[in-house]
Design brief:
- The chain is of the alpha/beta class.
- It is 38% helix and 12% strand.
- Helix 2 packs across helix 8.
- The protein starts with a helix and ends in a 15-residue tail after the last helix.
- About 3% of the residues have low confidence.
Length: 476
């Protein structure tokens, strides 16, 4: 009996050992399924594996430009963006700069593509309940209200985080913590306080703001990156966080080369500035430099054929050192290649104004596109000044989706800017902006799960409709 028991025990041990071997053999297969913690590469064709941000749900409390720029970009990348608007009013830009009577303005339509609109009265008790449910449902809340506005609505960070610890709360503000934290900021204010305006314009003229919306749209782009980073970190930590982008900070980031030059001034004049070549002393701050290149290569905007009648018949021309000899040949000045006053960059510095005047004599005999073709053939860096009309009509920009034509139910077809970020496996589709409250019922029922009975009660409660105007008293 004892021998039989020993044999049985040995047999069990062998069987268990075989199981262990089998389990060990399976482990390499599991490793093949996941590499570096990532799933195996999709077998679907590129462009058919879904959008980059599929599954991400955005609660959009933004308005005007900085916030909508951010949320539109996220929506282009595949996020479900639910825009919350006041009943009967909506985003203020729906009616600003309106060009088609009765239709949402281009200001609004060009900043709110691919979004869904729900109208909610946040001061109404039922409206507040709907917002709470949206906070629990969404991944990111984005807002660009005036300082303190979200807190006054009762949506403090602590309140939101308690409802949804995974929620990321992202904000655009004018300034970061400091003496101006409570100040409201608009585009041009941001350009002025972020250092752009003081360094834009000509030396003998006033500071200038740029036509590019580097304060609003520039900060919105910064915020989008912050949100995506917070989403990525949440995969590791499981919790949300606050993301802040101040407009002053965003503008300064885009004007960083001017902060670079401010520090270089301590060690002597900025030799690449035309001001230096003209023998004009530098002050204590980075000066306005007209059309000087910020990268150290002398450059200027020059007239081209037709400049007398066309305000955009100009080209930006850079006298880059490696192609100086090619420039000399092209403009009919081959003697400059060996002339000690022109052959080397240091010798050219005090003569830049005269050099560009000579180059301009040549560019004025040709259209800006002819100059571009001739220069590009010699690797000479130039850039034609393109008008918005030329950009709107450029076929290559349509082909790449940089400029897109979109149809709208009330205003008809219009042009808009497409997604500037091109991904090979996440194809962008630009859809029209939503009508005010267009998706209210859809979001309440299909997203938040309200029943038909509850929907009917919400409709009659006044939580999603504009307040009724008091009836006018009849004349006696």
């Amino acid at each position: 009996m004892a021998k039989k028991k020993v044999k049985k025990a040995k047999a069990k041990t062998k069987a268990a050992a075989k199981k262990v071997v089998k389990l060990k053999a399976k482990k390499p297969a599991a490793k093949k399924a996941v590499a570096n913690g990532l799933p195996r590469p999709s077998g679907k064709p590129f462009g058919q594996a879904g959008k980059a941000l599929d599954g991400v749900k955005i609660l959009d409390f933004t308005h005007v430009q900085s916030g909508p720029t951010c949320t539109q970009l996220l929506a282009w990348l595949g996020a479900d963006c639910i825009k919350v608007e006041r009943p009967g009013v909506g985003d203020i830009t729906r009616t600003q700069l309106r060009d088609v009577k009765g239709a949402d303005s281009l200001y609004f339509t060009m900043l709110n593509h691919n979004k869904r609109s729900i109208t909610i009265d946040s001061k109404h008790a039922t409206g507040k309940q709907i917002l709470d449910r949206l906070i629990k449902h969404c991944d990111v809340l984005v807002e660009n209200f005036a300082p303190g506005a979200l807190d006054r609505m009762g949506l403090t960070w602590e309140y939101i985080h308690k409802l949804n610890p995974r929620m990321i709360v992202a904000s655009v503000k004018g300034f970061g913590p400091g003496p101006y934290e409570e100040c409201k900021v608009y585009e041009n204010v941001a350009q002025c306080t972020g250092g752009s305006a003081s360094t834009t314009g000509f030396r003998d003229g006033p500071p200038l703001v740029t036509g590019a919306q580097i304060g609003d749209s520039g900060t919105g782009l910064h915020l989008a990156l912050g949100i995506v980073s917070a989403l990525y970190q949440r995969n590791r930590t499981g919790r949300g966080q606050r993301v802040l982008c101040a407009m002053q900070d965003g503008v300064l980031n885009l004007a960083r080369v001017k902060l670079r030059d401010q520090q270089r001034l301590k060690h002597g004049p900025l030799t690449e500035f035309s001001q230096y070549g003209e023998g004009i002393p530098f002050g204590e701050a980075t000066p306005r430099a007209g059309n000087d290149s910020g990268g150290g290569q002398p450059g200027w905007i020059l007239k081209c054929k037709g400049w007398e009648t066309d305000p955009n018949a100009y080209i930006y021309f850079i006298t880059q050192a490696p192609v100086w000899e090619a420039i000399c040949d092209l403009i009919g000045k081959p003697e400059w290649k060996t002339d000690p006053d022109y052959a080397k960059p240091p010798a050219r510095l005090p003569r830049l104004k005269a050099i560009f005047a000579t180059i301009e004599e040549w560019t004025m005999t040709k259209t800006k596109f002819e100059v571009m073709d001739l220069c590009n053939a010699k690797d000479i860096p130039v850039g034609p000044i393109l008008s918005m009309k030329e950009i709107a009509e450029e076929p290559s920009l349509r082909k790449t989706g940089t400029v897109v034509e979109v149809d709208h139910p009330t205003r008809g077809a219009y042009l808009t800017v497409g997604n500037p970020i091109k991904l090979s496996d996440s194809i962008t589709e630009v859809k029209r902006s939503p009508l005010l409250g267009e998706h209210t019922e859809e979001i309440l029922t299909k997203v938040l799960g309200y029943s038909a009975k509850e929907l009917a009660e919400i409709k009659t409660s006044g939580a999603i409709t504009p307040p009724e105007k008091p009836a006018k008293a009849e004349a006696a």
